[in-house]
């Protein structure tokens, strides 16, 4: 399950590694069932009276705290669709078990360059047919820096595709090698102060990650990436399992210090 020498070289150079079709059809159906059950349960709880406080982020998007998780609702006005739940592993044992799955945990030891790793966070990511919104160029680093500081550089993510992903249904798009530049300059026009400045990126190098369901994409917190909207009639669901060196606090347990964002370029 560990990365081969060639995979480690490509990961170091490009900042990501794709392993196609790792999970079987039956395993995928089990995980899809888990995701849909969690999404339905979380949405029902959040919509009831007293379901949890809701705020508007700096960019105007809706975030609600419910079921011991942050729920990002779709960006379109009036949408009742969930686009992200974080953390999500406490909501279903089938999702939590992925942190111990050797197909994910073993390559993570190579991605992080250490033998002892542990969970950092888990996201349930949904791009529903016709509603799934885009996400502009960014690194995960700023979002995690406001909680764990420079330790955010020591986090890597396994992106598990639960559906076939292509340009038509909101595929992930990466800038190979962008992680070598460290924290990217942030977009001064972005009210959240977290997105990368597209005018300072070599967007012509963008690579669309098209992958069959059951594939795993490994990448670090400094890789610049984005995703396109889902305008198709197909689902594009994913589970994102993020790891860090063992012994460190999990993302949702670390103090939130938003002023830290101004320490970044």
Can you walk through the features of this model?
By secondary structure, the chain is of the alpha+beta class. It has a single domain, classed as q2cbj1_9rhob like domain (Jelly Rolls), CATH 2.60.120.620. The protein has 5 helices and 13 strands. It has helices spanning 5-14, 25-47, 93-96, 102-112, 141-148; strands at 16-19, 54-56, 62-66, 69-73, 82-86, 117-127, 135-138, 156-161, 172-174, 207-209, 216-220, 225-227, 236-245. The chain has a 9-stranded antiparallel β-sheet with strand order 1-11-8-13-6-5-4-3-2. A hairpin with a 2-residue loop joins β3 and β4. It is globular and about 55 Å long. The chain starts with a helix and ends in a 20-residue tail after the last strand.
Give a brief description:
With 265 residues, this protein is α+β, with helices and mostly antiparallel strands. The protein has helices at residues 5-14, 25-47, 93-96, 102-112, 141-148; strands spanning 16-19, 54-56, 62-66, 69-73, 82-86, 117-127, 135-138, 156-161, 172-174, 207-209, 216-220, 225-227, 236-245.
């Amino acid at each position: 399950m560990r990365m081969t020498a060639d995979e480690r070289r490509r990961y170091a150079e490009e900042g990501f590694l794709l392993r196609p079709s790792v999970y079987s059809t039956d395993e995928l159906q089990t995980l899809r069932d888990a995701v849909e059950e969690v999404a339905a349960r979380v949405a029902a709880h959040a919509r009831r009276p007293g379901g949890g406080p809701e705020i508007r982020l700096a960019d105007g998007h809706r975030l609600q705290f419910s079921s011991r998780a942050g729920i990002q609702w779709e960006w379109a006005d009036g949408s009742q669709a969930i686009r992200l739940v974080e953390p999500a592993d406490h909501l279903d044992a089938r999702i939590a078990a992925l942190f111990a799955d050797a197909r994910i945990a073993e390559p993570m030891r190579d991605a992080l360059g250490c033998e002892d790793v542990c969970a950092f966070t888990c996201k349930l990511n949904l791009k529903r047919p016709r509603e799934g919104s885009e996400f502009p160029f960014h690194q995960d680093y700023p979002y995690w820096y406001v909680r764990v500081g420079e330790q955010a550089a020591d986090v890597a993510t396994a992106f598990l595709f639960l559906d076939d992903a292509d340009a038509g249904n909101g595929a992930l798009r990466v800038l190979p090698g962008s992680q070598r530049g460290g924290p990217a300059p942030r977009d001064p026009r972005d009210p959240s102060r977290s997105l990368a400045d597209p005018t300072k990126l070599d967007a012509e190098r963008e690579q669309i990650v098209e992958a069959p369901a059951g594939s795993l994409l490994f990448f670090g917190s400094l890789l610049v990436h984005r995703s396109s909207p889902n305008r198709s009639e197909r689902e594009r669901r994913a589970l994102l399992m993020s790891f860090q060196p063992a012994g460190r606090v999990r993302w949702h347990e670390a103090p939130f210090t938003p002023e830290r964002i101004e320490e970044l370029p």
